[in-house]
Amino acid sequence: MGNPFDLTGRKALVTGGATGIGEGIALGLAGAGADVALTYRSHAPEGTLAKIEALGVKGVAVQADFNQMDQAAAEDVVRFASDALGGLDILVNNAGTIYREDSTDMPLADWHRVLSVNLDSVWLLSQAAGKRMVAQGSGKIVIVSSVLGSQGGLRVPAYASSKHAVIGLTKALCNEWAPHGVNVNSIAPGYTATDNTQALRDDPDRSKALLERIPAGRFAEPSEIAGAALFLASSAANYCHGSVITVDGGWLAR
Prior knowledge:
Blueprint: E1 11-14, H1 20-31, E2 35-40, H2 46-54, E3 59-63, H3 71-85, E4 90-93, H4 108-136, E5 139-144, H5 157-177, E6 182-189, H6 198-202, H7 204-213, H8 226-233, E7 244-247
Parallel strand pairs: 1-2, 1-4, 2-3, 4-5, 5-6, 6-7
Helix pairs in contact: 1-2, 1-8, 3-4, 4-5
């Protein structure tokens, strides 16, 4: 039996793969042998692509804005990855955004923007990739949720709602696509040192409160989320369908 975590020859698309958790996952998949396409919005992807190619695999990037994405745009992203890499075996829906505001004051436009990026684009890209994967009888879809997919959080009502929703989407798609050899699973990261948590980490009181709640006593590094993604993208997870893997330093156990 070969190494079940070996992704040599596999073709992966990681959204938001030029920075943060997405970059950590993209490099983790590349390190296991996968060719990787990534999307980016404003963060230049050249540095990440250089790291991917230094691992001896192919790396490509396409600019995409997931706010107000429609089916045609989602199909274009999936088609780009498939054409550039010569197929598509893995989709990691990682791209996301957050907006912090008291719930009494949150503008409707910002509510819609967060749901558009964090939920609508995940659905559209999963649908576009899922069509190909169901037709070929195999594929791995990994959706990045959050520990706030099972909690409410503070001052992030749209974010928490979207992360609850993508866990529901994970389970719904698993029920339809598992019989076709397509695995749909989710990761729920805890507080991770990325741009999305910069404001929290810069707030001494809030940061102290968070760190006191985390048994591990620190924020995760983006690379530490990659192991769960690698597992779910590999043949080691062939019997995982609709699972949610929590990587949170013990946050939910406290």
